[in-house]
Input
Amino acid sequence: MKLCEFLRPASLPAAYGQLRDLGPRGMILAGGTALHFMQDHTPVTAVDITRLGLSGIRAEDGGYVIGATTPLADIQRYRAPRWAMHEICRRIATHQIRNVSTIGGNIARVFPWADMPVALLAMDASMRIYAGPEAPEETPSADEYFAEQPARRFLGGKILTSVRVPALLAHEGYGSVKVVRTAAAFSMVTVAAVLKLDPASGAIRAARVAAGSAIPFPRRLPEVEDALLGKEPNEALFLEAASKADAPWRGKEGMTAEYSKHLAEVSIADALADAARHALERAE
Amino acid sequence: MMNQTAPQPAVTFTLNGETRTFATRPDEKLLDLLRRNGYRGTKFGCGQGTCGACTVIMDGRAIYACLLYSMQAEGRDIRTIEGAGTLDKPSEFQQELIDGGAVQCGYCIPGMVMSATALMEAESTYPDELVKEYMDGNLCRCTGYEKIWDALRRVLDRREAAAKKG
Ligand SMILES: Cc1cc2nc3c(=O)[nH]c(=O)nc-3n(C[C@H](O)[C@H](O)[C@H](O)COP(=O)(O)OP(=O)(O)OC[C@H]3O[C@@H](n4cnc5c(N)ncnc54)[C@H](O)[C@@H]3O)c2cc1C
Ligand code: FES
Ligand code: FES
Output
């Protein structure tokens, strides 16, 4: 991308109007940190959406609403009783990038190695999308939203305005594993899981497991989830369930596909163990 | 419509306490604008957000000037190494770096100083984990970090002790 013009709309409808008028020449700009991953030099007009009041985190019945232009650093710092989104943010890039990169930018155009989509899939988040002054807001679930490259949704001027993450309930736990070569590197594999345990029997009642980076696009792993349901949570089960993952693991950066698969499976098992431990701690 | 999309060739922000207006281009990075205007203390290392040599402070937070478009700085408060200390009057951390022999080629140091400044201004206690979090985006190819870390730790320990005394 080559920025040829730079606009700072003062309201959401104004930003939408500008993007509509610009058509393919227009590009939403949030933190701008992902632009150098888009190597083409197409001339674009940047529409800066960081001054529209879309930043900040608030509790809303049963969940948390994270504004699309909230920097990852703010999510990392936020603490609340039934909240776990800070964990993954600490492990994304470096302090200086987290201060500028927004959650919206991380999930509006998804790169294979992105960590946030995996966390949001496990968390059963939903997105809020502004579709113009006349149209109703769109509220796709994470499953719908990440079913294909989300950037396609935004070609017509629509703007992601917030992400809603449900509060973790009693007996629910979140766990995640990001495998990296060095602390600030992109993930070799990134995994997140939410488990809900039955308070009486301790068996697994519900499971959401997602993975990214060692596959072309982040996704849920339904075969792993199915293998967990109704079972007693323990390490052997986690490894067995992880081995059921039916994903196109691929080799890269010196890793063979087989190695990726192995790395993914042990990471899934570790994330599940983490989730189960937290679920046991969360009695109410 | 024409008016709305007219090019905006200038950007205004506070630079080390002074309101300044600079001519720029929409595709210019803040780092290039700064260096072009004589603020050469901020270094160009990798140009892709991995080394920290270009660290400046925007609205109290450490950021990479090599990734930020200059136009994004409109109305913001920007501080660079030129505002941190001078040759005659180095900042406390800069003096510790000198005294501790913590500087080899020196290329990473302005960025280290700016990240440490952001840390000291935002936090009141400095556990190691937190310090690492603030400093994790600054690489040094020469020193092996230990002397830089020790110099910073001395400053932070003093600040913590002073805060305890009240
Ligand atoms: C050195 C480096 C290391 C990194 N490491 C990691 C990592 O380990 N894990 C990880 O997950 N990420 C990593 N990132 C990616 C980083 O998290 C993304 O660059 C960032 O989240 C993008 O956010 P942004 O606000 O800068 O988006 P921008 O760069 O402004 O935008 C990115 C894309 O999304 C679109 N967009 C932005 N906001 C919206 C919106 N609200 N609605 C619709 N479209 C929108 C833009 O048009 C653009 O196409 C790294 C980045 C760098 C530079
Ligand atoms: S020059 Fe900006 S991070 Fe390296
Ligand atoms: S002293 Fe040379 S890079 Fe740090």
